[in-house]
Design brief:
Helix content is 72%, strand content 0%. The longest helix is centred in the C-terminal third of the chain and has 33 residues. The N terminus and C terminus are likely disordered. One of its GO terms (cellular component) is nucleus.
C-alpha cells in the first residue's frame, strides 16, 4: 500500500514538473506558437486511477481482485477531497457498510473505517456535508449491531470498529458544541464584548461554560 501511494505521488509530481517546463518554455522561446503550446499541454497525460478487475480465475490469470484492491487503486481517499467524486464515494461507503461490512475481510473492514475517518476530517475541515457523514455513522452503527455475532474477523476487530465509531461520534459532537459556542458569541456577545477574543477562546476551550450560559440565557442560545 505504501509503495502504491509512493508511485501515485511520483506520477503526479512528474506531471507537475512537465507542466512547469512547458510554461517556462513558453516564456523563453519566442518562436513557440499558441497552437504548439496547446499541443504540448495536451500531451501531458494526467494519471487516472483505474483497476483491471479479474472476476474469474483462468489458466492465464489465477489472481482475483478484492474490494480493498479496488478501493486502493481507485484512490478513494484522495477522491474524498474531489467535489466531483465526494457524493459517489459516500454512496459507495454507505452501501458497503449497510450490506457488505460483515462479509468483508479484516483488511477491507479496516480500510473502510479508515476511509470513514478521511471523510470525517474532510467534512469537519470544509464545514459541509455534515448530514451525509451523520448518515454514514448511523449506517455503521446499525450494521455493527445487526451483525454483532455474524461477521468475518475476530471479536477484537469488531470491538475496534465500535471504538472507532464512538471516537468519530464524539469528535462530531465536540465539533457541534464548538459551532454552538461560536453562534452564541456572534449573537450574544457583540452587545458587550464584540472584540473580546480572549473570551471567545475561553469559551471554545471550556464547553462547561457554555452549559452555564445556556442555563442562564436559554432564549438567547436558541
Amino acid at each position: 500500500m505504501l509503495l502504491l501511494s509512493k508511485g501515485l505521488n511520483n506520477n503526479i509530481l512528474l506531471r507537475i514538473r512537465n507542466i512547469r517546463r512547458i510554461y517556462r518554455q513558453s516564456l523563453t522561446n519566442e518562436k513557440l506558437s499558441v497552437d504548439e503550446f496547446k499541443s504540448l499541454l495536451e500531451n501531458v497525460v494526467f494519471y487516472q486511477p483505474h483497476i483491471y478487475l479479474n472476476m474469474n480465475v483462468t489458466r492465464e490469470v489465477t489472481i482475483t481482485s478484492t474490494i480493498t484492491d479496488a478501493l486502493i487503486r481507485l484512490d478513494m481517499k484522495s477522491a474524498v477531497h474531489d467535489i466531483r467524486r465526494f457524493n459517489y464515494v459516500c454512496k459507495l461507503v454507505k452501501y458497503l457498510l449497510m450490506h457488505r461490512l460483515h462479509t468483508l475481510s479484516g483488511r477491507s473492514q479496516i480500510y473502510l473505517i479508515e476511509l470513514l475517518k478521511v471523510i470525517m476530517n474532510h467534512v469537519l475541515g470544509s464545514f459541509n456535508q455534515m448530514s451525509i457523514f451523520r448518515e454514514l455513522l448511523e449506517t455503521l452503527k446499525a450494521s455493527l449491531e445487526q451483525h454483532n455475532y455474524e461477521h468475518i474477523g475476530s471479536s477484537q476487530l469488531w470491538n475496534n470498529h465500535w471504538e472507532a465509531l464512538k471516537l468519530m461520534s464524539s469528535t462530531l459532537e465536540n465539533f457541534d458544541i464548538q459551532k454552538l459556542i461560536l453562534q452564541y458569541c456572534v449573537h450574544v456577545l457583540p452587545s458587550t464584548r464584540r472584540r473580546d477574543l480572549q473570551t471567545v477562546q475561553i469559551l471554545q476551550k471550556r464547553p462547561r461554560i457554555l452549559l452555564k450560559l445556556r442555563h442562564d440565557h436559554p432564549t438567547d442560545i436558541q
